[in-house]
Amino acid sequence: MYPPSMIASASVGAAVRGLRLPDSALDSDALMELLARVTGSDVDCLRSCLEQIEDALKQHLPPAAPPEPRCPSSPQPSPAGTPTDVRDVRLTPPCLAPAP
């Protein structure tokens, strides 16, 4: 299990890597080292967490963006709490409010 700060840092790393910025001043290794230093985490543990997040994204998200879902008429309350294991994070697409 990972602390929330490591999950957040790995998520930032995955997002930046997903952008595939050309000629980025901050390559993947430098970004991981910076995030590890900021959060006081081990770089290898952070990379492992990032890889698990990227694997989960590949498994659960479609390759192309489908049409945006609409919100249900009565919003369902979501349970409070922060998962500390990346396998407990549920990836669901955001819903949009109906257009006026």
Radius of gyration: 16 Å
- How much helical structure, as a percent, in the residues? 40-55%
Category by helix and strand content: mainly alpha
Query: What is the N-to-C succession of helices and strands?
Result: HHH
Low-confidence stretches: none
Number of strands: 0
Summed up, the helix count is: 3
Shape: globular
Head-to-tail CA distance between termini: 43 Å
Describe the structure.
This protein is mostly helical. Helices cover 46% and strands 0% of the residues. The protein has three helices and no strands. Helix 1 runs antiparallel to helix 2 (28-39) and helix 1 packs across helix 3 (43-60).
What tags apply to this protein structure?
single chain; mainly alpha; 46% helix; 100 residues
Question: What is the secondary structure topology, with strand pairs?
Answer:
Blueprint: H1 4-19, H2 28-39, H3 43-60
Helix pairs in contact: 1-2, 1-3
In short:
The chain is built from 3 helices and no strands. It has helices at about 5-20, 30-40, 45-60.
